[in-house]
Amino acid sequence: MATTTNKTWQKDDDTTAIDQDAFINAFLDDLDASLFARGANSAKPGSPNNGDTFYDTDASRFIKYNGSAWVQVMPDAVNVIDSDHYVDGSIDGVHLAADVISGAKIADDAIDSEHYTDGSIDNAHIADDAIDSEHYADGSIDNAHIADDAIDSEHYADGSIDNAHIADDAIDSEHYADGSIDNAHIADDAIDSEHYVAGSIDSAHLADDAVTLAKTAAGTQGGIQYYAGSGVPSELAAGTNGHFLKTQGTSANPVWAALTAATTSVSGAVELATAAEIDTGTDTGRAVGVDEYAGSKRGEVEVQLVAFGAAVDTATGDGKVAFTISDRLAGMNIKRVYAFVNTAGSGGTTTVQLRNATQTADILSTAITIDSAELHTSSAATPAVISGSEDDLTENDIIHVDVDAVHSSTAAKGLVVGLICGTP
């Protein structure tokens, strides 16, 4: 007798499995095709007669037309396959239905770590008291795994509680050992005025330059703070407008005092004279400042150069007269220039240039001119202009007077050129 699985047949005296479909198809090939038709389900006769039989190769079963529909000839057998019908190793994952293997089907110690899907062992699969210290991976027990109130003092390693382990506002005054709060434990800007005991800040606690004007007590406008005889700070009220603060020595308080006018024999307040007042030179109540004196005429030096004698006709030419800069003039500037003749000429102008022979440069950007029938340059139609880059006087430089032109009709007689020098 032969036995069958869903898709294989096997003889009782043979371990060779026979494919059911292949066997039936071979069997049918040996029969007369006229007995019944076979093929895919879609190939069964469209207009069958009652009692017609057809082998459905899609479902591997015989079907018969009952006059109204195709029906299976024989129902599938149930519980006909036993363990001795299976070939060893023939049942794989494809043949097992979902959830068919229970705990009773699994041998003791048959499940090892490689059989577990990652993350498949949850709390329900672990027996009470089954997890011991050797089962924990290093660092695997975090806050979420520790029950509330489970950690007591004996569980802490010495020194293991650092800042990161202390909750905000968890430390109160009773937790501090006496004297344990020193400078290193106090945050910057943590101590405010309410933390100080009244009168506890003395001189030793104040850094140098720590007390600014804004930190001193308010006083009266115009008043001055000083130390009185007792050594305590006091205030001198504002004095009369124009008075000055006068010290009276080590044993007296300062006072406000009026200024005393200075004289030739008494020290006191004195006003500085202006350059014009210095020029006048008649004021006895003012002092002379250096800058004002330098800017006055009294601070100037005048030099006159005779280029032609009083009766000698003027003539053109370079270096008609020359002079050298002494140490008295060195450092000064040429501030003004002029020229005059003894006898006026006529026709055109007499033109004079000042030249620094040492520096090979003209000093005047516009030359001195004496107009026709004029004796002096003060009435010249075109005033002379001193070059700002060539007006400096350097010791030992030589200055030449060059006559570039004379009157065209009648030459003037005599020629004097003047320079007025002063500090810059």
* Sequence stretches where pLDDT stays below 50 over 5 or more residues: 1-5
Distance between the termini: 143 Å
The ordered string of helix (H) and strand (E) elements is EEEHEEEEEEEEEHEHEEEEEEEEEE
CATH architecture of the domain at 300-422: Sandwich
Beta-strand percentage range: 25-35%
How would you classify the helix and strand content by structural class?
A: mainly beta
Would you write up a description of this structure?
The chain is mainly β and 424 residues long. Among the domains are: 1-121, no CATH class; 300-422, Jelly Rolls (Sandwich), CATH 2.60.120. It has helices spanning 20-30, 275-280, 290-295; strands at 2-4, 8-11, 17-19, 37-39, 53-56, 61-65, 70-72, 224-227, 233-236, 244-246, 255-257, 271-272, 286-287, 301-313, 317-324, 333-340, 350-356, 361-362, 364-366, 368-370, 385-386, 398-405, 413-422. A hairpin with a 5-residue loop joins β2 and β3 (17-19). It starts with a strand and ends with a strand.
Give the gist of this structure.
This protein is mainly beta. The protein has helices at 20-30, 275-280, 290-295, and strands at residues 2-4, 8-11, 17-19, 37-39, 53-56, 61-65, 70-72, 224-227, 233-236, 244-246, 255-257, 271-272, 286-287, 301-313, 317-324, 333-340, 350-356, 361-362, 364-366, 368-370, 385-386, 398-405, 413-422. The longest helix is centred in the first third of the chain and has 11 residues, at 20-30.
